[in-house]
Amino acid sequence: MKDREDILAHVEDIWRKTEERGIVRNSPFLSERERGLFLEKIKRERGAKFLLLGGEEAERQAFFFYPSFMEEEECRELLLEDNPVVLLEIQGKQKKFSEELSHRDVLGAIMSLGIEREMLGDIFFRDEKSYVYLLRKMKDYLLENLQQIRHTGVEIKECEEALAPKQERIEEQIFAASERLDGIVSAVFHLSRGKAQEYFAKELVYKDGLVAKGSSSLKGGEKISVRGLGKFHYLGLEKNTKKGRMVLRILRYG
């Protein structure tokens, strides 16, 4: 498996060739942190035009870059004709003898075929079936070679992305003294300020994919992830109370 620096250099090369040659190209799948690092690296130069593929709010997504002269709607039309990402459905051939498969089982079986992790997006489960996002160029190879996961014979087919489960999102109000991130994380996850600071010290808090400092201030629109606790979108200030506290709005992901 390539290390993070190699993957990010590869993605940057894809983006630059998109601009230089006036073509559309896609990246491999990246984690939220990798996407954030890439965008942080290029934002000082010029804006990249892209869509994210691999499921709404997925942990792992692929960039679909398009050149600056192209409009987003044109890009979406291209994706309808030839999407470089597919969603595959995996189920046991005989339900009676099928095992309950885990994320680790499915991931391990696919990677044992020599398919690298960056070729794969999120893996999820529904109604005793497994679903995996995959770069289309690997589809035929996987269909030909993945016949069994653990002791379960499987059948695989491409399916509509509409089958992907949507994450539950709940809008909430929280109270905080300011829009400092450490205070907001403390309020969202019901932590003491000291406990919240431990997460920052261990670099377990991410803002828009990048490791965040507790002292940073939010403006509204940021996506916050706290490893082991969950994630939320910060929507912004709703009002100030008479006692000088702030009423803030968040969108929590279930």
UniProtKB/TrEMBL annotation:
Residues 82-160 form the Ribosome-associated protein quality control protein P2 RNA-binding domain. Pfam families: YlmH_RBD (PF17774). The keyword RNA-binding applies. Keywords: RNA-binding. The keyword Glycosyltransferase does not apply. GO terms for molecular function: RNA binding. InterPro entries: Nucleotide-bd_a/b_plait_sf, RqcP2_RBD, S4_RNA-bd_sf. This is YlmH family RNA-binding protein. It comes from Oribacterium sinus. The lineage of its organism: Bacteria, Bacillati, Bacillota, Clostridia, Lachnospirales.
